Please model this.
Amino acid sequence: MSPTPDPPTPATAGPAASTGHLPGTAGYRLIMISMSAAGMATFVLMYATQALLPELATAFSISPTKATLSITITTAALAVTLLVVGPVSEYVGRTPLVVASAFFIDIAP
Model:
């Protein structure tokens, strides 16, 4: 019996294989820190209006309950979007989704 060759790894698969940033490298750590900061910033921005809810209720002559809908609807929209985008990112890859998101954010009014 002849020994079977080892399957190609990202480092030996050839120039077409993309290795990205490997776990444990400085670039990978920087990306993880950046992604964590972006995620935290998203939630900070979503809940930043919480302190303004009494002012929003007064300014728009609505009840405080209705004023909280600004946070509730945003959180619900994020939850539903993540349920859709998660599986899509597994199918098409994360990079095309990030590029498309950046494009649409750039052209949004």
Notes: The chain has a mean pLDDT of 81. The CA atoms of residues 48 and 58 lie 18 Å apart.
